[in-house]
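Data deposition worksheet. Section B asks for the primary sequence of the deposited chain exactly as it was used as input, without tags or linkers unless they were present during the calculation. Section C holds the resulting structure in token form. Section D is free text for depositor observations; keep each observation to a single sentence. Incomplete worksheets are returned to the depositor.
Section A, Depositor: J.P.
Section B:
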Amino acid sequence: MFALDVTAHNGRWRLRHPGEKAFLAFGLLACAVALPTWPGAVLSGGTAAALLLGPARVSAVVLLRAARVPVLFVTTSAVPLLVAVQPSGGVSWNPNGAGEALTATGRALAALLCLLLFSATTPLSDVIPRLRRLGVPAAVTEVAGVTYRMIFLLVDSLRTVREAQAARLGYRSWRTAYRSLAGQAAAVFVRAFARARRLEEGLALRGYAGSLAVQVEPRRVSPGFVAATLALLAAVVVASLRLRGPS
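Section C:
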């Protein structure tokens, strides 16, 4: 399993109702998007980071590993905002580009921290069955569940093939590495189809009729947690408006 999934399954907030954590994380996300970047997004992202490292007890190493690729994507996406394309086809420095880049980067990083607050504390296996109660079509939840499982199967197949190739000195040079990568892609592609066929046959033998009945562990919503979340969101909004000052 991925480190983020392991953390979500073994975390301190594992037994809390997913609705509580969704209310907290997406409430902070709404603040990060709706409030001004300074100080709204900074406060929202900082609050999410403090909750992750504090009450939720999520390791900083896990957070950095989970956020490194999205952070790289955000920073590289903000670079084009620094330049402007002229009607003649030339490229010049955008005088407002630095502010726009900082605004976009700040909001994106704050939103990322808010989403990590939910994903690092809530396993997807707790979320998918409860989506049916919110009116999400069964086909959507079924596809999401199968896709979630197939990701781990594909990663396991990829690791197995790579270890077998490395044991046969398949990565001793650039030439053999390229050849091994091509064979790896072909082997994983074939394995994916084989596992999908076995999964389909297994479901058919068990009388699959379009939906799978999954037992959901009952969880009670904590009024104290909801009240604390409301107070925290209100504090973020008030602090943002006061620090922002009159426009």
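Section D:
The CA atoms of residues 80 and 97 lie 8 Å apart.
The radius of gyration is 23 Å.
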